[in-house]
Amino acid sequence: MIEKLARMAMLYDFYGKLLTVKQQEIMELFYGDDLSLSEIAQEYGISRQAVYDLLKRTEKILEDYEAKLGLVAKFKEQQQRIACIGELTALAQQTANLNYLEKISEIIQELKDLERK
Prior knowledge:
117 residues, mainly alpha, 2 domains, 85% helix, elongated, UPF0122 protein DCMF_07275, UPF0122_fam_protein, UPF0122
């Protein structure tokens, strides 16, 4: 469940502005403010089922955007490579091994290539 919450939060961060205002509001209330389906339904004067259906459709829309655009996957890949650069930099400083610098250079080039995609 926590993984789904984190995924939806990230998808919303990347693609939320592409949603309708109502979809944005419902997502923010459910995922951001941690309101229940019943609380959201009461606030909007709609049924709990209507809120559930809207959330499920909105989640699917966000997943579809990711499937087509892949921005979250690209971001995660970049974050992993940046973390690797940090680790290799620390190792290079500790050991004075210049081979680490070569690997850092390769990763930086991979990031540049990824940016062009």
